[in-house]
Amino acid sequence: MSSFDTKIAVLLRDDLASWQRLNVTAFLVSGIAHVTPELMGEPYEDADGTQYLPMFGQPIMVFSGTAAVLTAAHGRALGRGLRFSIFTDDLFHTGNDADNRAAVRAVPAEKLALAGMAVHGPKNAVDKILKGAALHR
Asked: Whole-prediction pTM value?
C-alpha cells in the first residue's frame, strides 16, 4: 500500500510508436514538475560524491487507452478543475516551445488530437479521471 495521498499519472494513446510514447511521457511530466516543485525529492549522490539531479519523490504511473479514453479523461480532468499537461499530435511536427504552444492554442479543447496527458492530484480524483485506461505495458 502506498503512503502517498496523491497520484502522478501519465495517460498515453495506445497507438503511439515506442519513440513517441517515450517522448510524450518526458514532455508531460516536465509540466507536473514545474507546477508542483514540492513533489521533487532531494538530489542524488553516489558513493564517490558525484551529484545528480533530483527526481519526483513518488512513483509515476503510466497508463494507455484509446483516443476516446484520452478524450474522456481530458474532459473529466477539466471538470474536476485539476491542472494537467497535454501533448497533441501537432507537437510531433513542431520544433520548439513557441510553435508547440501556438499549435495547441489554434485548436478548441474538444477538437484537440491528444497523444497524451499527465495529471497530479488526489488519488481518488486521478483514478476517476483515468476510468477506462489500463496500466501501460
From this structure: 0.93
